[in-house]
Amino acid sequence: MSQPALESILQEKRLFPPPPSFVQRARITPERYQQICQEAEADPLGFWERLAQQELHWFQPWQQVLHWDPPQAQWFVGGQLNLSYNCLDRHLDNGRRHKPALIWEGEPGDTRTLTYEQLHREVCRWANGLKSLGIQKGDRVGIYMPMIPEAVMAMLACARIGAAHTVVFGGFSAEALKERLRDAEAKVVITADGGWRKDAIVPLKSQVDLALAEGVPSVEKVLVVQRTGQAVSMIPDRDIWWHELAPSLEEACPAEPMDAEAMLFILYTSGTTGKPKGVVHTSGGYNLYTHVTCQWIFDLQEEDIYWCTADVGWITGHSYIVYGPLSNGATVFMYEGAPRPAKPDCFWELIARHRISIFYTAPTAIRAFMKSGDALPRRHDLSSLRLLGTVGEPINPEAWMWYYTVIGSGRCPIVDTWWQTETGGIMISPLPGVTPTKPGSATRPFPGIAADVVDMEGNPAPEGGYLVIRRPWPGMMRTLYKDPQRFRSSYWERIPPKDGQYFYFAGDGARRDEDGYFWVMGRVDDVINVAGHRLGTMELESALVSHPAVAEAAVVGRPDEIKGEAIVAFVILAEGYGPGEALRQALMQHVVEEIGAIARPSEIRFTEALPKTRSGKIMRRLLRQLAAGSGISGDTSTLEDLGVLERLRQGV
Ligand code: WT7
To answer: What pLDDT shows up at residue 1?
Structure first.
């Protein structure tokens, strides 16, 4: 938790009501909102049930809206639907057949547009392709792709035939990929030769080869999309080019009716222990929740061109590039690359050229743009924008104001959306035609969401405590893959249930102000949020310790102007190794190889000892203070050897 951010947030008093012109056209107006909230509070299950009936296509209705056997939730029990059907087929008959579903641009500047009809056809072909490789209902498929339309097709194809996908972010290393494929027991991996990012090729296929070389016994086939055209090695009988398989495949493939509770995907996220957590989402509740939140929070209108800059490898990409917007029949813009030295203003240029109206990005990106000055965005016509969004970490009021004034010209409401991989969809956010916003606050819970701030005993603690959810919601995770016990202990027992009341513990600290607005202050557990991405300190430490030169390591976050938090590692060297610049670089590279470039430590400090309690626990609080360069404060009485602190401070 960064001290300065907290202070500036506390002083924040500015209030921005939605512009009247926006309210006039908004899907959810203040009057409608009152009515919705009353409905949702009076009868939460009836509220979700009506929305499920109105908004989605079901092959078979449910018998029960919710079966809640804490912490096990089942939504729309007995109902059958298909995400791919709701995202594609139904739009063919409701006037959207020739509407663009995806407008895509590659980093080199190549473009593709797929109408709903065309995307439907491609997804059917992909579904048949997966079937031809032996994929059946219930199987798991790994997806390790660049940001190209085929990534979306592959996900929807899995959903279509009832296979669960596990998308692994293309920036993760072979090691991280291997671990995820193994845990998920994926049968097929879908990848590409490479992808473009920051004017370089990300060599995806060779990473897959490395991951599989170490043995992932479940993987039978690797399906490879040709994107960059660089040479890759293809292993006979295992690797198949998509463009060689595709022509032989039929273009029709009916969507499989799936149980509402059938697993839709597993997405791995960092936790407080070394092993990533396989967050499981299912079909019915997830479809409904991403659909409704996307429609209301982004105020989707028929003519909008919507751009979320996330990668499909993260939950934001799953929920708000693919399933939420397509279920609503929206036009989604998708970009392969990222801002880079040769094109620092590519986002603004893309907004102008594609007439983007809704733009959803992360505070870390906003801060980086802010730093490079107003001249770049001012060079482009951003008048098509009408709504801005942010996600991933708390946004500091300064960055919020810059986003509002420079990018939005003071015309566009900002939706600061708080949620998590585990929540499936947005939980706390303004509704843009309703909620007056305060820079730095995600404002209020979505209708039907019982968010609160409590202490460790579950008592209300609005002035500062733990962010919890008091009631199940349709988009919630159902379990951790193959680890229901960890699901229970990490999320539902950290704050003990009392009198039948269960608390979903999000891992964030927060407070509520006099208007009931939520101010999320950051993680309270051993998770670091680097540029909006969660990394477990344990994961980073195990990566470091796996290097022969490292005897022991402790990793903490330090406030960073651009990335939110930066990684600082305290390292004790093994016998026979001495500190030095070369070793420092080697260790940084080692972490990149183990986890991926996002995990590169910003700083490595060699030390001879770590501050520990008498029971041997590393006192991270002290390390955090040291890393931040602030003085040591608070209780040090449990410290085993006070001299350690002095030596660390002097940078021995
Ligand atoms: C953690 C979840 C959900 C998509 C991106 C990250 C932090 C996320 C906000 C926000 C303050 C936020 C929280 C949360 N976070 N959005 N608007 N304000 N903090 O997903 O990797 O599952 O991370 O990101 O700490 O717990 P994730």
So the answer is: 34
- List phi, psi (to 5°) of 104: -125, 145
Whether 534 lines ligand 1, by a CB cut-off of 6 Å, is yes
Is residue 163 within 8 Å of 136, Cβ to Cβ? yes
Strand partners, 443: 518
- CA dist., res. 327 & res. 310, Å (int): 18
Atom of ligand 1 nearest to the CA of 316: 4
pLDDT-flagged residues of the chain (< 50) = 1-9, 652
Select from 280, 321, 391 the residue to mutate for testing ligand 1; criterion: most ligand atoms less than 8 Å from CB.
391
pLDDT of 82: 99
List of domains in the chain? 1-81+417-521 (2.30.38.10), 527-651 (3.30.300.30)
Please give the number of the atom of ligand 1 that sits closest to the Cα of 533: 21
Note the pLDDT of residue 577: 95
Closest CA to ligand 1's atom 23: 420
Which of 473, 541, 481 minimizes the C-alpha distance to 504? 473
What residue owns the CA closest to ligand 1's atom 20? 420
Token look-up 């500190």 returns: 579
The residues, any chain, with a CB within 8 Å of residue 198's CB and separated by 6 or more, are 107, 337, 338, 340
| Beta-carbon count within 10 A of 77 CB | 15
Query: Which amino acid would we find at residue 387?
Result: L
Ligand 1 in contact with 166 (CB < 6 A)? no
The DSSP secondary structure of 344-372, one letter per residue, reads: TTHHHHHHHHHT--EEEE-HHHHHHHHHT
DSSP tag of 428: B
Round to whole Å and give the CA distance between 202 and 599. Answer: 16
Place of tokens 């296509």: 57
DSSP character for 255?
P
Asked if 449 and 419 count as a contact pair (C-beta separation under 8 A), the reply is no
Residue 331 Cβ inside 6 Å of ligand 1? The answer reads: no
State if residue 419 touches ligand 1 by the CB under 6 angstroms criterion.
Answer: yes
Q: How far apart are CA 144 and CA 195, in angstroms?
A: 11
Q: Do the Cβ atoms of 481 and 276 come closer than 8 Å?
A: no
- 3-class DSSP assignment, residue 528: strand
Can you tell me the distance from the alpha carbon of 203 to that of 146, in angstroms, rounded to the nearest whole number? 10
420 Cα–ligand 1 center, Å = 5
Report which protein residue has its CA nearest ligand 1's atom 10.
418
- Greatest CA separation found in the chain? 73
DSSP string, 100-129: EEEEEE-TTS-EEEEEHHHHHHHHHHHHHH
> Looking at residue 206, what is its pLDDT?
98
